[in-house]
User: Fold these one by one.
Assistant:
Number 1:
Amino acid sequence: MSYRATLIPGDGIGPEVVAAAVRVLSAAGVDFQWETEAAGAAAIPEHGTALPDRVLESIRRNGVALKGPTETPVGTGHRSVNVELRKRLDLYANLRPVQTLPGVKSRYDGVDLIVVRENTEDLYSGLEHVVVPGVVESIKIITEKASTRIARYAFEYARTHGRKRITAVHKANIMKLSDGLFLDCCRAVAKDHPELTYDEMIVDNTCMQLVLDPTRFDVLLLENLYGDIVSDLCAGFIGGLGLAPGANIGEHGAVFEAVHGSAPDIAGRNLANPIAIILSGAMLLDHLGEHAAADHVRDAVHGVLREGKKLTHDLGGKAGTSEIAEAIAAKL
Ligand code: ATP
């Protein structure tokens, strides 16, 4: 079977790691017809915008995309392509699995949790304005619709993936209305799933508990901003951003991308670790129902890490991005 899919190389290390993922996916024996589209800073010279309409049209047509990181200017400049893409395609669920990988030195063993992050609202609504000079207001939007939808997604995911416990993370002691509404929605959905354990934890305490013992957690269910911060924290448990995959899922499309950003400090030097996006590619295969190929890709990644002969510099090795891709492809 052949699949049409959108390919977004992105900025910084994006083109290098995306090429590595394409190499591995083709070695996995699943035939992809990639439709390559520019987004991010890379799209501005030709299209005058960081997110041309043709990118959205391509993803709507194909249903799936593999995406490299896109640069987001800090403080000024164009709005985040990631935020726009997730909103415009209504990719409401951001899924970030965090699993200990064989052979990778990290502070903890046996971490196996998944971060389920709401992807469309919260402080990411982009509603900011200057009230008077020196006073700025950023608006946090939490709705019953989006909170219920993400809670349903998390519980359904847990049920179908053998997960047992869902922890809703919040700060409802301070944001009583917004985070209070989020919790009300989670509780209502939890009532429909008596087979799963549901509990709640305040976000600051969650961070401390995670650092003390991340193996205690199973599924974390969070609003957008807490989800962003907590998932980077969790990436640190398993050896860093170079290893953390992700997916953005909606009713009509899905975009697979690593948790990490465009890493301009190492871009264009064949130094980036491609494993995060290769594992995102495995999630894409799962999404398409190609579970055997997805498992093969994960096994090949684990094999290379376990051997420890070919590692990128973030893991203490000297191998280049393309060398890692070849080593993984050779195991397929
Ligand atoms: P963004 O705002 O887009 O998230 P950022 O600069 O905050 O960008 P990253 O681009 O993810 O975050 O980079 C954070 C650090 O992690 C940098 O030092 C970068 O070199 C490193 N890093 C990120 N991704 C990788 C990777 N795939 N391989 C090796 N190092 C990486």
Number 2:
Amino acid sequence: MKAAVTLDRYLASEERLNELSTSGLSELILQMAFAAKIVAREIRRAALVGKLGLVGERNPTGDAQKKLDLFANEVVIDAFGESGLVAAIASEELEELRTIDCGGDASYLLCADPLDGSSNTDVNGAVGTIFSFYGRSRTGTCAVEDELRHDAELLAAGYVLYGPSTMFVYSRGQGANGFTLDHDVGEFLLSHEAIRCPARGPYYSANLGRYHGWPANVQRFADHLIERDTASGRPYSLRYTGALVADLHRSLLEGGIYLYPADEAHPNGKLRLLYECTPLAFVAEQAGGRASSGRRRILELRPQSLHHTVPFAVGSREDVELYEKFAASRGP
Ligand code: AFP
């Protein structure tokens, strides 16, 4: 049997092999993995300790907040608040950036969606955490939001998938690797090294209930995916969980595209560029996939505000490229 490789051992060897700087990034990734273990534990027992259901509030982008949303948000903030490494945290659950008192000179910024897909919590469905770490362009200033909008550098990103097992997938620009939580040992162990996303299909994930509110060229793309054409592997099969992390994870491992275009209810898309689209785009590209707003590569976009939303397509490279062609077309 091959020896199990823990996340911290893997991070150390990744640093050594690629001569990466050791100035705190591994520590931050490990700290996120620690937060994920706490969140995973609470999700597992939520129904038994009164943690299901709504709080009765809405988050800054208008979603109804679940108790687990707030719990996960607090866990993430607590995990980094005292680290001395993070100057500020942007979160889906916080209206404003949370600056850390002791973090004026800290070198990193954290952007996170602590609990993605939280509508699934009450039905025991998959949910996720999305995170990214930016290197600061300057320290000691208060203009952190400005840094995120302009020159902070995305150094590492990843997600946690809380499903039948808990998985931690991250990249710091040297490919994307996945770890599965061994609950008995209490460690994330390497299970998916150097994830490679197939070039295309066979799945697509989108809320088809919104089809009639989509632009005509997006409708044509969805119609194209379900046409019969054996040579190109169509029709694609539909898979949609209501949790972006779970749908993207399937596309990364087995191929396909996740799509949340603009629609009547969300003229600029629903998903948040800073803490949902950008981190997942980074991981997808590191796995050989692609992510796009339809017009531009997601990683070329900068948020104009913390909760800026964009239309989003992510997954297999050829599928996302085809989506971009449909999005650019003027139609029949
Ligand atoms: P919640 O975290 O509010 O449940 O939103 C989940 C999400 O951001 C993403 O994970 C889903 O793919 C998408 O929204 C689902 O949105 P629809 O309910 O409009 O399909």
Number 3:
Amino acid sequence: MDTFVSLCKRRGFVFQSSEIYGGIGGFWDYGPLGVELKNNIKKSWWRATVQEREDVVGIETAIVMNPRVWEASGHVQTFADPMVDCKNCKHRFRTDDLKANDPSREGRCPECGGELTESRMFNLMFKTFIGPVEDEASIAYLRPETAQGMFVNFENVLTTMRKKLPFGIAQIGRSFRNEITPGNFIFRDREFEQMEMEFFVMPGTDEEWHDRWIESRFSWWTDALGVRKENLRIREHATEELSHYSKRTVDIEYDFPFAGFAEIEGIANRTDFDLKQHEQFAGRTLRYFDEASGEQVIPYVVEPAMGVDRCFLTLLIDSYAEEEVRGEKRTVLRLKPELAPIKVAILPLSRNEQLVPPAHRVWDLLRPHFMTQYDDAQSIGRRYRRQDEIGTPCCVTVDFDTLNDEAVTIRERDEMTQVRVPIANLVDALREKLDGC
Ligand code: ATP
């Protein structure tokens, strides 16, 4: 993990939040390269989940909602983890983590061996107050999931978009959980981003749709993101593990070097639980008129839910490689071109004054088409290594021959092959190498 934390800091992917004040546990900032990778992940998910489908639409809902939403959803009563405190060193732990780590030391602190308090439940929702008075009546919560935004807008979307079952509503947005033990870098945060989709179906077709979504979500990880299949698995939740709303849940898990297989996405059959609860709490009917049977039905819901930050970490780990090239070590992120933060680096062979103008002309030519970086510091070999380390698929080198032949060299990250291309054809040649992106 140290390798990834240090790479992320050194190369501008992820910084500790409020670092100059010593940081703050469970919060992270994304740097110039991090924000690009994150945006590319979100674009890929949105394309697969909304753009390419005829049956899913997107929305964006507020982070703070009427607090009744969280009573209806069950979060006020049940969104809690059991925790214990050490009476001696005051460290706090999740009870289930302690059991999983070392069952033989149950009841003792894993840090100092001290006595632990009884386990008690801790609600993970962040509380705030609306308006100037901080009393019970003004309590509100930062949302712990984006899903409820889709449920409370079910009727709005159904009527404005004239949707027929089955159809889905998707959203990308921030969620907040006051995790007892945030950690493992950006794996478990207190503020993170989720990509969730609620797929509304006719009751009775939910199990079939659940299977379809499991298959389709797994393929997204392998085909769209290029995560290696051997590092992924699908795990069925045991009955006692199921959330209060779920009939069946399956997790897609990644084999993390620090934790073994752990969840990166959950795909749940949420039944009609949420819509029924909102009907009851809001005193409104939230139903779908089924023309075939002439009946009003409450749809069932299949929900694929994943976190952008955890996906970010998965991609870093999965694409990371250290190789030996001509006796030298190189670190390379083998990200798909679509995901790479920088697609093309423009590298003049040196800072020679003859090379600077054509290199800048090439950079000007490419900037409207691709995310680029211009680098003229240190030897060309070093600069290739720097681009390999951040996953840049193509480097364009401007050298003294360019002055005569109006051509440049494209060097590819993975095979390190080099081809000479006329500047006039450069945009098309790069687009082809970058799989059209
Ligand atoms: P875990 O068991 O790891 O706490 P969960 O089952 O509570 O996760 P879900 O409620 O199913 O998670 O959330 C869906 C997805 O959101 C997860 O698969 C994960 O990618 C992401 N996620 C959940 N909690 C966090 C967190 N604290 N930090 C980062 N991502 C998270």
